[in-house]
Write a structure and sequence with these properties.
Elements: E1 2-5, E2 11-14, E3 19-22, E4 26-31, E5 34-41, H1 46-52, H2 56-73, E6 82-85, E7 89-93, H3 100-106, H4 112-131, E8 134-135, E9 144-146, E10 152-154, E11 161-162, H5 180-196
Antiparallel strand pairs: 1-2, 1-5, 3-4, 4-5, 5-7, 6-7, 8-11, 9-10
Helix pairs in contact: 4-5
Length: about 210
């Protein structure tokens, strides 16, 4: 059994059988043929709930950021389909085949054509986000989901940074130093991992002087 915190502070229980994924600020639950991303809290007792309540504000901020990102970028063929946005969370299309990270871990290396399609999907989705004046930072194999047709869809935008639509995305920098160049480094790591057919630690790029 798990718990969800509604915007009004009330706590709802959910069955672990409905869980599709759990992140640092949200949980994804199956809702019929779709998936709902909601602000989450883990715990099995009132004492445990109290421990996690201190993180509520930051998790709410991340979820609100993700909502804003979907409003700005949707629809796009290489980004998870957003069906509805409400006060409680985000209703998205459900992608049952898991992440690209899991697919690489559990399947033999496919043909080069398939790898190129996945690489181009990541490039095009990030290009679109940058066109929408959004820096992503968290670009990784785990944030690329596999659709039924084996295409990939980018997810997880809670840590994005949004800038005014008239900003020069090549020159902006957030308070933590996040830049478009940093996004490109993370993208390069993803491309390297898909080509090598294994998850390559980001620090491995240091051998190339990055």
């Amino acid at each position: 059994m798990g718990f969800l915190i509604n915007p009004d502070g009330t706590i709802l229980k959910f069955s672990m059988q409905d869980v599709l994924g759990i992140g640092s600020f949200g949980i994804v639950l199956r809702r019929g043929k779709n998936a709902a991303k909601l602000r989450s809290l883990s715990g099995y007792s009132e004492e445990q709930i109290a421990v996690y309540e201190s993180d509520n504000e930051s998790s709410l901020e991340c979820l609100e950021t993700e909502k804003t990102v979907y409003r700005r970028v949707s629809p796009h063929p290489h980004i998870a389909e957003c069906i509805d946005i409400s006060e409680k969370g985000i209703l998205m299309a459900c992608y049952d085949s898991g992440s690209l990270e899991d697919f690489i871990k559990n399947n033999p290396k496919p043909g080069i054509a398939r790898q190129v399609k996945w690489i181009m999907s990541a490039i095009e989705s990030l290009h679109h986000l940058h066109q929408c004046r959004i820096l992503v930072d968290d670009i990784a194999l785990r944030s690329m989901l596999i659709a039924n047709d084996l295409s990939t869809k980018m997810i997880d935008f809670g840590y994005c940074v949004l800038f005014p639509l008239d900003a020069d995305i090549t020159k902006v920098k957030d308070e933590h130093g996040l830049t478009v160049q940093g996004d490109i480094v993370h993208l390069g790591n993803l491309i390297y991992s898909v080509a090598a057919w294994e998850k390559i630690p980001l620090r491995a790029l240091s051998s190339f002087g990055i």
